[in-house]
Amino acid sequence: MTDLPALPWQARQWDRLRAALAADRLAHALLLRGPRGVGKGVFARRLARLLLCEARPRENEACGRCRACALTAAGTHPDWLTVSPEPDRATIGIAQIRDLIEQLGLTAHHGGYKVVLVDPAQACTREAANTLLKTLEEPPGAVVFLLVAHQAALLPATVRSRCQSVTFPVPDRAEALTWLARAVPDVEPAAAEAALDLAGGAPLDAVVLCAPEARARIDALTEDLRALLVRQRSAVDVAGGWQALGAVQTTERLTRVLQQAARVLAGSATPSGQNRDGQHAAASSAMQALVAELDFERLFELHDACRAAWRGCALRQGLNEQLLLEQLAVTCRESQSTRPAGR
Ligand SMILES: [Zn+2]
Predict the structure, then answer these.
(1) C-alpha neighbours within 13 Å on the C-beta side of residue 74
(2) Does the pLDDT of residue 274 top 50, yes or no?
(3) Given this chain, do its domains 8-167 and 211-334 carry the same CATH topology?
(4) Domain range 211-334, CATH architecture
(5) How far is the CA of 229 from the centre of ligand 1 (A)?
(6) pLDDT at 38 over 60
(7) Which of 126, 197, 213, 296 maximizes the CB count within 10 A of its CB?
């Protein structure tokens, strides 16, 4: 009935909210939190459609047949308000929240719930979040706020405390792989598994990473690392390229690339020199070239640096991204291999 299929690893969260809704106990503000790429946004939209569906009391999902469902599917339901950063902006500004509040002051067109989706909620500036907070404290009528956040820690504690948290962890690996095989049937299982690893176990992110252009970007990052390790390129040059991707994405992807490198390195260290579980077969030539420059000591040093940088930018707004990326590139370039030369 819907182009928003239920994701199998979200059944527990769905059942819990569905039960609360049936008992008329649904919190008026929900904070859907968890890593990027696990489907929080899909879940929020599925819930929004159910809240607005005219057949809701009888159905477990939005019916897909009523007038409201036609409007939500077309993205034109007047009682569903979405706030996201405007094009070319990284943040949600106070003007957007003021507009939202003004629209909430109007009566619901269809006489039921109004649904507000804020995605990603951590993109709210401090002023925007504080303005939103006042509305969360005194919601105007039957409104349900759905705040979607993969970096919920960036939201003020006052906003978080006004919301009921619904947590979306990374699903079980086997379940994710089964789902992925159906989602991207043309991709070889080993490649899908490698994409899931690079996505940190987040299945929707893994789908994105299965696309040829995304794989090319990962290969480019992998090659950047190798070029730094062999001092083929300068830190400033490499960091300049990284800036286009942004500090959060770059540091997250680099961390995952190094995690995959660790698996490849472990695989290549087996006595036969062969991989144990197909990981090596899935490794790109860029990955194999990177691994050739690494021993575990150097790999862990790089991984720690990338991970620290990722954590650092995930927890701070208004960060100097250029500086952070340049420092990271310098660290990578200056790392030492203990592996004997001409191995
Ligand atoms: Zn419906």
Answers:
(1) 10
(2) no
(3) no
(4) Up-down Bundle (1.20)
(5) 57
(6) yes
(7) 197
Say which CATH architecture domain 8-167 belongs to.
3-Layer(aba) Sandwich (3.40)
Ligand 1 centroid to residue 2 C-alpha, Å: 10
Per-residue pLDDT band at 289 (split at 50, 70, 90): very high
Give me the phi and psi of 339, to 5 degrees please: -70, 135
The DSSP letter of residue 124 is B
Distance 14 CA to ligand 1 centre (A): 17
CA of 139 to the centre of ligand 1 (A): 25
Q: How wide is the angle at C-alpha 233 spanned by C-alphas 227 and 234, nearest 5°? A: 130
pTM of the model: 0.83
What distance in angstroms lies between residue 1's CA and the mean position of ligand 1's atoms? 10
Q: Which of 48-52, 107-111, 325-329 has the lowest mean pLDDT?
A: 107-111
CA of 69 to the centre of ligand 1 (A): 4
Could you tell me the distance, in angstroms and rounded to a whole number, from the CA of residue 170 to the centre of ligand 1? 30
What b/e readout covers 24-51, taking b as 16+ CB neighbours within 10 angstroms? eebebbbbbbbbbbbbbbbbbbbbbbbb
Q: 149 has which bridge partners?
A: 33
C-alpha 111 – ligand 1 centre gap (Å): 14
DSSP state of 117: E
Q: Is the pLDDT of residue 226 over 50?
A: yes
For the chain, the domains span: 8-167, 211-334
Distance from Cα 84 to the centre of ligand 1, integer Å:
25
Q: How far is the CA of 59 from the centre of ligand 1 (A)?
A: 9
Give me the pLDDT at residue 278, please. 46
Arithmetic mean of pLDDT over the chain:
89
CA of 338 to the centre of ligand 1 (A): 63
Å from CA of 295 to ligand 1 middle: 57
